[in-house]
Write a structure and sequence with these properties.
This protein has 250 residues and is α/β, with parallel strands linked by helices. It folds into 2 domains: 2-110 and 217-249, Rossmann fold; 112-212, Dihydrodipicolinate Reductase, domain 2 (2-Layer Sandwich), CATH 3.30.360. The protein is 36% helix and 23% strand. It has 8 helices and 11 strands. The protein has helices spanning 10-26, 47-50, 65-74, 90-99, 112-128, 152-164, 217-230, 239-243, and strands at residues 2-6, 32-37, 55-58, 79-81, 103-106, 135-142, 170-172, 181-188, 195-201, 206-212, 235-237. The longest helix has 17 residues, at 10-26. The two termini are 35 Å apart. The structure holds nicotinamide-adenine-dinucleotide (NAD). Nicotinamide-adenine-dinucleotide binds next to helix 1.
Length: 250
Amino acid sequence: MKIALIGYGKMGKAIEAIALEKNKKAGKDIYEIALKIDIDNRHLITTEELSQVDVAIEFTSPNTAIDNIHWCFDANVPIVVGTTGWTQQLSTIQQYAAENNKAFLFAPNYSIGVNIFFEINRQLANIMNDYDDYNIDMLEVHHTEKKDAPSGTALFAALDILKRVKRKDQWRNYASDNSGTLSIISERTPDVPGTHVVRYTSPIDDIELKHTAHNRTGFASGALLAAEWLVGKKGYYSMEDVLGFNQEEK
Ligand SMILES: NC(=O)c1ccc[n+]([C@@H]2O[C@H](COP(=O)([O-])OP(=O)(O)OC[C@H]3O[C@@H](n4cnc5c(N)ncnc54)[C@H](O)[C@@H]3O)[C@@H](O)[C@H]2O)c1
């Protein structure tokens, strides 16, 4: 499978390392990193170059992700996007992919553990909708270079809660006293790959759901899994589709 890495930073490099390790284990080249695009060779992002690969994996920055997606759409190359912080445009991109038969997959977090955390978060929110004594808030901690806040992962989990818990109708990225607000507290601490906590607190007891990433390997191997899954498909998808969690039933 020929892969274009769009963005060769921490995540691009981690994906390359996993792909090479998998080749080594298999004793053959399952993956070929055929194209690596970063800021200093951006002129290589052309239809001609991209059309030589089977799939593109995009981890760059919020202000460039949409351009990169359109380059891949134009070249008819399936694209897996990991960049966060641009998702106010997500539904427009999804609609474009669906209407024009392009293959697009976005996940705010590719780690399989986080996607299980999302699934339990949805189930817990369904239960806790009936228990008004519990306030809900969230905490997310990331390394100091992270550009967006709250994290895409925290936002995704927050929206899943807002859809299910009627007493919360908005989120804010600060500690709020408003009972209808779901507060998301963002902390930036050196070298933290990503920690997310959903807290239900009451005068009697607390319930916490926590995911702690120990390194980037989970994001990188999940993105590679998603890329392999996307080849040959049309339309837009999420990690729930890759993992077989069917959100429609909830
Ligand atoms: N969805 C997930 O699972 C997940 C996991 C980790 C990080 N992220 C997100 O992915 C993005 C990248 O994360 P990272 O840790 O690799 O960051 P990084 O800063 O280490 O790497 C980003 C790379 O993109 C390059 N880049 C920037 N603008 C570019 C452009 N116009 N064209 C080509 N390359 C460009 C930069 O030079 C850099 O090398 C961030 O938005 C981050 O929040 C998502």
